[in-house]
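Write out structure tokens for Short-chain dehydrogenase.
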Amino acid sequence: MFSSVKCESKARMDGKTVIITGGSAGVGFEAAKDLADKGARVIIASRNETKLRKAREEIIKATGNTNVAYKQLDLSSLKSVRNFANQINTEGRVDVLINNAGAIALPDAVTTDSLNLTMQINFYGAFLLTFLLLPRLKASSPSRIINGSAAAMYLGEIDFDHWNDVGRYSIVTSLANSKLAMVLFNAELSRRLEGSGVTANTYDPFVVKDTDILTNLPGFIKEISRFFVNIIGQEKEDAGRQISYLASAPEMVNISNQHYKFCEKFLRHWSVSDTGLTRRVWEESKRLVKISAEEDWES
């Protein structure tokens, strides 16, 4: 199934700054550790400061790279996303943005921003963060954006009138919709970035063992899911290495608007070629996250 040889890259990242959301645990942590080992300045982001501090210490101990920082980021709060982006934009360069954070089986609820919780954590938050950091990424080019998705996207639908409804979607369909939105956003992002020196690709980490992604599932379903994951899942170190490869490999420097699985190009969703749809995803997302005139570099 997976050969780690495909993902081996000896490329160094000295002088480069990498931001990884969901970097305090699981796949994000492993990717952060691998990139720190390549010499990158790594900024890990998540909600829990205690976990962030511990993760930073572990990365430094494992790699000897002390240029590892952490910043709190709560994707369920657009205010938190804006605060995080403002902090990053007052610093230096941003060479790689990895939108890795995500969750499944969240409560069927809306956030204080009046957005569907699953959609906000898995998509809107990443959309806003990417939009706010794009000027910095362009100034640091050649740079890369790597957006996490999942095979669930093939089951998703985009219904702009009901994106944020409560009581309409199941655990599976809400996840699928958010992951489909991410790949459609990535396609539009890639087109808008042509000629800028910034690339944007998506990746599917497949099924990964020993992470907390199943935490929110109900008891019996959680146990069945864990049993299934333990049989077919890959090690989180391997999944982290795959993300690190997309972030660092020299051969990836000019590749954009592709979908990756196990470090190889994989079948993209059929809707990514519908430029009318991807354009509307972009514009509707800007409206929903309330991009201000000050923030809107497109205008």
